[in-house]
Structure formats: structure tokens, C-alpha cells
């Protein structure tokens, strides 16, 4: 009895004295450490072997609960699940980062309507937290009250949703070839968001995103700037600043700024009709484009002074064209940003007709009419063929009596024709018969 009773004392002495022995950790687990060389090494090895091969230690591994880390967007709902294989007739418990008990089994411990029970069984305890706030972030603990108490940790990460970005730095209008600088800012993201720029579908290279921590110590404010030279093609373009963050899950969160660019006008002269003839009416349209739109038009003809016309209307009208109207005409469009001049050479053609779009139009109409007539002819041919076949089928459907009548009438016509022929030959037959009945004439002797 002495030797067995002394073993627990030796174990306790070895664990408390030897620096390389087996110690009990804070979470209730035995931890085996490296053994130091010394005269007690064989005893320490025996102690370590005895502890780890204990059936109670093997069973305790099944009593260890497990959880998983969770990430949730602020305002969303997170579910915390704790499971255990061998509950040892004990209940599971969830605690928040402040070590306040939330649920002990199926019993609510903290009065917070956002926290609800999802599932409670001897092997699982799951709870949900709705309308999650940034303050809910932290390490949640699942415990099972066995001997010793065993715990598992679940780290809940709350993502702060960035606010819609704000663009500043734009003035009322920009002149062509001026340099524009715009600034963009977004607050409330966690972790810090990233900002990007684009002009329409074209990406703009902005400055790197600057990050500043918000006063709450949890979220961040990000900002960025972009500088570019404007052209006349940028008039009416949208400069877009977009915020990229994992909490948005691919959704677009951006702000656009429409810019206005002032530039000198451009002009193009368009004749109506395109091929003018002598005696026709002609309009020369001076089509100006610019920002602002041209407000004044000046018409000139080379070789003639003074100018033909200065007006706010862009068209030069010829009521009745003559050969003398041929020449080179110029139109100058003027706005607050400057002026631009375009030229057009007018050649008045003879009044004789020439191939035009109208003749082509008539040819197309004639071709369509001929095609329709051709289709009608084909339809008439098929219709006549159908009627002939249909009439033949009707004749085949006649009854036997009709065919007999037709046969008799044909036979009667043959007999009637035979009778007519017989009657016509009757006088000839009678004459021949009379000649045969008369006696022969006596012969006269010759002298």
C-alpha cells in the first residue's frame, strides 16, 4: 500500500518543482514541456507518460468545444455557433467580450433583444446578434462547465460601411486646355476604403488614397485628388469618384461631377439641295458648334465687297439661282470665345436633268411593281391549273346513269349518221336494181 499511495505525492512534487515538467495551463489543459537534463529525468519521463496516457485525458479532448471566427457588416446579423462532441452532462454558455453571459443553454442571461437563440442542444449552442454595431466587435467566448472548465473563442469582426463620397474643387466652367483639380472624400469605412477616379469609361490616375482615423477610433476617413487638362471633348463629361470596400460586396458607391468646358466655335457649310441647278432655290447653312454657341454669322463672297450678309441666322438664301451666283463663299461664326471661318465653292449646274436620287427612287419603285406583277401571273397560272384538276375530279364523280345516257346519245348519233348515209345511197341502189330487171336489147345484124 505504501508504494501506490506515494505515487500521487511524487507526481505533485515533480509538477510543482521540476521546471521541465508538465504544468496545468490557464484553460485547464496539461501542457508537456521539454525536460531538462538532470538526475530526475527518468522520473519526469515516467510522470509525463502517466499523464498523457490517462483515459481521462483522452476523453477530455472530446469535451473541448469549437467555434469559428465571423465577419459581419455593420447593421447586419451574425450567428455564433458553438459545438462539442462530449458534453459530459454539462451545458454550453456564450459570453460577450466584456465577459457578460449572453445565454446559458437555452436560458437568456442578458436583456438585449438583438440577441436571440437559434439552437440549443446538448451538443450545440447557437445564437444570433442582429443590427450589429461597431461596438459589438471583439472576442466572444463559448464555455462548457466540465472539470476543468473548457472554452473556445470566436473573433467577430465588424465592417464599417463607407459613406457616399463627396467631390469638391470644381468651379462653374473651365476654358479649353485649362488644368482642373478635384478632391474626393469618404468617411466611416472599416477597414480603410480605397478611392478611384474615372472620366466616363476612361480611368483617371489620381493621387494615392490618404487615410485618417475618425474620432471614434474605429473607422477611417479616406481622401484622394486628381488633376487633368480639359479639352473640348470633355464638355459635358462626368468625372466619377468611386469607393471600393469589402462591405459593399461589389455594389457601386460613387459620386459624379459634370464639367463644362468653354471653347472656340467650329463651322461647316452645308448646301440644300446638295446639287443646285440654275433656276432652283438654294440655302447655304452655316452650322456652328461651340460653347457658348456662336451668336453671329458673317457671309462673304470672294471678289465682292461689302459682305453679303451679317445676321444671327446661319443660312444664306438664293431664291432663284443663276450662273453668275457661282463662286467661293465664306461664313464666319463668332462667339465670346472667338471666331472661325469656313469656305464653300458653289457651282451652278445646267437646268437639264441629271441622274439624281429621285431617278434611283423611281427605278426602285418600278422594280417592286414588276415583281408584284410577276407574282400575280404565277398565282393565276397555279389557280387555272387547280381549277382544271378540280373539274376533272368532278367528272369522275358522275353517277353511272349519266354515263349511260352519254353512251346512248353517242350511239344514237352514230345510227342517225348511218341512216343518213343509207338514205343518200338509196336512189343509186334503186337505179341499179331497175337496170338489172330490164331485158337485154336485141342484137342488130350487121350488113
TrEMBL record:
SMART domains: IG, IGc2. Keywords: Calcium, Cell adhesion, Cell junction, Cell membrane, Disulfide bond, Glycoprotein, Immunoglobulin domain, Membrane, Phosphoprotein, Repeat, Signal, Transmembrane, Transmembrane helix. GO terms for biological process: homophilic cell adhesion via plasma membrane adhesion molecules. PROSITE patterns: IG_LIKE. The chain crosses the membrane at residues 361-384. It is a single-pass type I membrane protein. GO terms for cellular component: anchoring junction; presynaptic membrane. InterPro entries: CD80_C2-set (IPR013162), Ig-like_dom (IPR007110), Ig-like_dom_sf (IPR036179), Ig-like_fold (IPR013783), Ig_sub (IPR003599), Ig_sub2 (IPR003598), Ig_V-set (IPR013106). Residues 1-22 form the signal peptide. Involved in cell-cell adhesion. Has both calcium-independent homophilic cell-cell adhesion activity and calcium-independent heterophilic cell-cell adhesion activity with IGSF4, NECTIN1 and NECTIN3. Interaction with EPB41L1 may regulate structure or function of cell-cell junctions. Homodimer. Can form trans-heterodimers with NECTIN3. Interacts with EPB41L1, DLG3, PALS2 and CASK. This is Cell adhesion molecule 3. It comes from Oryctolagus cuniculus.
